[in-house]
Design brief:
Blueprint lengths: L2 E9 L18 E5 L2 E9 L7 H15 L4 E3 L5 E2 L2 H10 L1 H11 L2 E9 L2 H12 L1 H7 L7 H36 L3 E6 L5 E10 L3 H14 L4 E8 L9 H5 L3
Antiparallel strand pairs: 1-3, 1-4, 1-5, 2-3, 6-8, 6-9, 7-8
Helix pairs in contact: 4-5, 4-6
Length: about 250
């Protein structure tokens, strides 16, 4: 048997927590401490670690169960080391990074938000309402030359793209600003796909989570022209500051 140690999370406690949780391979999850922090680990047979969706979801559920007991930093799925000694070695080597990150996320939860829009419908609205006069003025460039027809087409496309980006920015600001004010930290990306106008993560203090969720509900009710997908609360996957260890193992 080739038994290894699977690391699930870095914890803000050095106590030997009675987690009462089974790991991926059915072995109990326990903690290994260094100074005032520890790692949640379990034994695993190397050949039993399956890199698939079902196993990854189980891994996530284990981390969420640990999160109910203490502040943690999630560790990337499939992080395996050979022994308890190597786990302690990682805690020692990256101790300062772990402590800084644990302090930042202590007492906080992460919520994820995706906002989708009907881009074809918005395009039509732009053409009919905001872009109508501009497009009329471009029609004056029409002539018999094929080049003029090509130029007209490209100018129209450019004007529509500009109007679409401006509209997207207005919507993003209307949605993101009030939620950012209700969160401790936030990260977001604009227009990640044709349909997803906003892809954001919010780090929310636990005592303010009900206020944040209520703020989201009011916002989604007001903007029924959009589709909202709010998930969480999650461990702080998106709010771990960069470190050498993160590049290798932290989610």
């Amino acid at each position: 048997m080739n038994r290894l140690k699977c690391i699930y999370a870095i914890l803000d406690s050095n106590r030997n927590l009675d987690l009462d949780i089974k790991g991926l391979d059915g072995f109990s999850v326990n903690t290994l401490a260094y100074k005032d922090i520890s790692a949640a680990v379990s034994d695993i047979e190397k050949d039993d670690l399956k890199v698939n969706k079902e196993c990854a979801l189980s891994y996530g559920r284990i981390i969420e169960s640990i999160m109910e007991r203490c502040t943690l930093l999630p560790v990337r799925f499939g992080t395996l080391v050979k022994s308890d000694r190597e786990v302690i070695g990682l805690l020692e080597e990256y101790y300062d990074d772990f402590v800084i990150n644990l302090r930042q996320v202590k007492g906080k939860l992460e919520y994820g938000l995706k906002v989708l829009w009907d881009v074809e419908k918005v395009n039509l609205q732009i053409m009919v309402l905001s872009g109508k006069e501009d497009l009329k003025s471009l029609d004056q460039l029409k002539g018999d030359s094929p080049y003029k027809g090509y130029l007209l087409k490209k100018l129209k496309e450019h004007k529509l793209e500009e109007a679409l980006v401006k509209k997207a920015q207005e919507i993003i600001e209307d949605i993101h600003k009030p939620l950012a004010e209700l969160s401790f930290l936030n990260k977001f990306k604009k227009m990640t796909t044709k349909k997803i106008i906003l892809d954001a993560a919010y780090l929310v203090e636990k005592e303010k989570k009900d206020v944040f969720v209520q703020g989201f509900k009011e916002l989604s009710e007001r903007r029924q022209d959009l589709k909202f997908l709010l998930t969480g609360p999650w461990p702080p996957y998106n709010f771990i500051e960069s470190s050498n260890f993160k590049k290798e193992t932290l989610v």
